[in-house]
Amino acid sequence: MPELPGVLTGDQVRGTVAWIAAQQGHDGALPWSRGERLDPWDSVEAAMALDIGGAHDRAAAAYRWLASRQRADGSWAAEYRAGAESAPGAESNHAGYLAVGAWHSWLVTGDERLVAELWPAIRGGLELVTRMQLPGGAIGWALRPDGTADDTALLTGNASLFQALRCGIALAGLLGEAQPDWEVAVADLGTALRTRPGAFADRSRYSMDWYYPVLGGAVTGPAARDRLAGDWDRFVVPGLGARCVSDRPWVTGAETCELALALAAAGQREAATEQVAAMQHLRDDDGSYWTGYVFADDARWPVERTTWTAAAVVLAADALSGATPASCLFTDPWALPEAGMPIEPESAGSLTGGAGTVLP
């Protein structure tokens, strides 16, 4: 079980995983909290935390639930309630993220049968993602009603899709089903993320647009450290964590832990641990985590505890402690196939011993 000395004990992480598991429905659905909304991206994140905590059957059930809800075009609804679609729009980052969860699950469990079972849904989702790619490499954020991609691209979602495509390529290699189109797509996407800021909508107020190109693996080495240093004072509140939005007195737990993962990927592990420690004021006695805190008002907001916030804590603890074989997924951009990566990285494989060393 992951633990961070002086920050989180193994029993505390175990309690957080148990709280996430308690939110899961009998059919495997893994929502924000019991009886509340479910979105595909956050459900995958919560399932990854279950695998880290050893609840492999529960994680597999969450992935199977998602696979069973996939539409014929490879998409998922943006939101579900009580098992039914409640927000029908389709988003590209939702379509891609099952690949990350499946690769993470395989790293933890070595269960190739589950990968094979999920593969049709993974392939369908990533094929949709590549169809949504725009000229210049960026990927549209959503499908229009006529089935074409919206020409607006979101930086955070695209950085997540960069990781998803690389995980999909790794899964394809595991199953012996090469996907050269995905390799071309992720190469173009990586170039866009690194060199074409104008390809993405301006959402620079949001901290996720600041750190996600590092977290997703598109920006590495000195460029990653420069990017994180550049907006540090705009987003980080000492002792409390990271703001969600630069001009609001509001820190959020998931963004803080994702920033920690990005810092670890940039080789700044001490700073990463400090961020996980800073957000522990959001922890509840039952192991859950409140979403955020408005420090100007000394108030938790929104008044909710979510599986994805708790999962971000578990993922950060695992990444920084090295407790599971999946701990390198977010902290070492070179632990996946090199498709789409920048040329001549500063220290390829410095954390895992070589590019692609986690591949079978």
UniProtKB/TrEMBL annotation:
Q: Which domain of life is it from?
A: Bacteria
Which Gene3D superfamilies does UniProt cross-reference here?
Answer: 1.50.10.10
Q: Where is this region: Disordered?
A: 341-360
Query: Gly residues bias located where?
Result: 351-360
Coiled-coil boundaries: none
- Protein name (database record): Prenyltransferase
Q: What is the lineage of its organism?
A: Bacteria, Bacillati, Actinomycetota, Actinomycetes, Geodermatophilales
